[in-house]
Design brief:
The chain is an alpha/beta fold. Helices cover 19% and strands 19% of the residues. Among the domains are: 39-201, Leucine-rich repeat, LRR (right-handed beta-alpha superhelix); 533-702, Transferase(Phosphotransferase), domain 1 (Orthogonal Bundle). The chain is built from ten helices and 35 strands. The protein has a twelve-stranded mixed β-sheet with strand order 2-3-5-7-9-11-13-14-16-18-21-23, with no helix packed on it. Strands 1-4-6-8-10-12 form a six-stranded mixed β-sheet. The chain has a five-stranded antiparallel β-sheet with strand order 26-27-28-30-29, sandwiched between helices. α7 runs antiparallel to α8. It is flat, with a radius of gyration of 31 Å. The relative contact order is 0.05. Its main location: membrane.
Amino acid sequence: MCDVQNTSDRAMQLDDKKERQSILNSGFTTAISNSWLMGNETDRLSLLAIKAKIVDDPLHVFSSWNDSIHFCQWQGVMCGRKHQRVIALDLQSSELVGSISPHLGNLSFLREVQLQNNSFGNEIPPEIEQVPVELGSLSKLETIIIRNNNLTRSISPFANLPSLLILSLANNYFDGNIPDGFGRLKNLQELILGINSLSGTIPPSLFNHSSLTRINSGFNVKCISTPLPITASKQTYWKDHNQIFGSIPPEIVNLVGLQSLLMQVNQLTGTIPIEIGKVQNLHKLILYSNSLSDLSQNQLSGSLPMEVAKLTNLGYLDVSKNLLWGEIPSTLGSCTSLETLRLGNNFFNGTIPSSLSFLRGLSVVPTQGVFSNASKISVVGNRLALVGCVFYLCRFRNRRKDTPSDSSKNSLLRVSYQTLVKATDGFSSFNLIGVGGFGSVYKGVIDGRIVAVKVLNLLRHGASKSFVSECEALRNIRHRNLVKVLTTCSTIDYQGHDFKALIYEFMVNGSLEEWLHPNPNEDLSNEEFRKLNLFQRLNIVIDIVCALNYLHNKGQTSIVHYDLKPSNILLDKDMTGHVGDFGLAKFLADNATHDLSTSETRSIGIRGTIGYTAPEYGMGSEISTYGDIYSFGILVLEMFTGKRPTDEIFKDGLSLHSFVKEALPGSASEISDPILFQTEGDEEEENSIRSEKDCGVLEFDT
């Protein structure tokens, strides 16, 4: 009897313990939930406070900032997937007028602030960096870009932002000293302070950071003077348009990582040390408009030293407008990375060295003698056998037979490797937006325009042929549903290696792949809100049909895309679909397949993407438009089921095609993407289907 009683008591105690644990867990969960809700409400109220500080919004950026939708869907706001907290605020180039609200400092999960190219006035609120870290200030903040505004007063040290990588405050009205607190930003990579009214010196502690790659304090009205610091980790030293005094020390040889030295328009004196020839990684040297006895717009006299040949990574050399005489040294031909060579307005004589013909990075060079196969002559201001000399390099094409017309050349944006490096922040992983079979795609800014830069991985077999294919395919085609190529770049990089890139119009909504299959581990995007409803998907299908109809039926010759898949369908701001990536494209002419990149259509085997490529290609069938139709069909099935053709459920003879076929017509709803019929809002434009007149003929010749 006692045993029974004891067992009963223990059972009651256990039940009581479970109940207490359940209550405790419930309370803990409720506390966490309340904490998240409070955090979300703090973010919402902070954003509204930021909006309240705007006095003029001509582009109606803030029209969506209201309670009709979740704040994570507001224009310019990006939230993390896990907690739905604001992690990025991007209001750049919005023509906003107002001031920056102190409530920006309450967005404790913030990683990125981009407010550049507006008319924000007053000072940067101290709340951005002065809230104690213990209270969860902006300890996660990595990027602050507020250049090109009307901000005034002194710069805050931002010392409480331990994660800060990029700080860009250029082209404002800041005055005072550069804060010593910058020296405590141990992870800082870029500090951009040019075009302000700063004075004093750059804190020496900044140059102890192994992560620091770029400093720009150029063109400050007042005097910023400092000796040239020596640090082996430095890659770019940029202090042009200031009032820097003194000379360049021989210790510059210790800057083994130095890639760029820009100190033009200063008050430097003396000579350029011969040790500069030992800085092997140097690729850009600009020192004009100083009081040096060397380089552009100085009082340089004598001959150009032979030691310049040691600068094998030098990409830019300007010694124009000096008093140089003698012959151009033939050793310049050893500067294999050279892209720009300016020798104009000197007293050089003799002939242009034949060794310069090996500089593949040069693009505008003489057309006579050893340069007979190159583009144009651009040589003035010297007494050379080939009259004049300013080599302004842009791409030396020694295999080129026909010179394009000026009108055709001017129709394309002209870019160099140096331009693309600057546009993408050195091809930073921060700007990496995609990786494909033949290369990587970066977001960049060229002349104020956001672009997509596809850099070919030339070590990958077939990448060069892919570049040729894409150039040929896109050269003469124009359609609203094809990704627009702006220009190309084929040159060499700073190490003398071949470099090829294509520059496209940037598609703000990314690829269809990202909308159909959002990455559950990605914390930097609003994946919960990347939901395509039925009408949006139908419209994208129509966009793809329009593009294929144009490629197959509207040109002088049919073009087969050969790699149709979601990652190659890009979406603009209006969610219009654009077919891109023509790296595997082929012409069909005279009933025969013509590979755009080679005369051998099977030189690198059957290509395309597994699951989307027509199975007939694997059995030796000729390339045809039917292959694109097959890929299109698989793509449509994927769009409406939400399943990839390579999904793990498709095995043992089951494919995406058979999976759908077996379900039709009675069980279509069971295999459809669960979010297919969810709509967000009931706007007529969003829930309407594009008409046939948008692209002409919608039927295929099958």
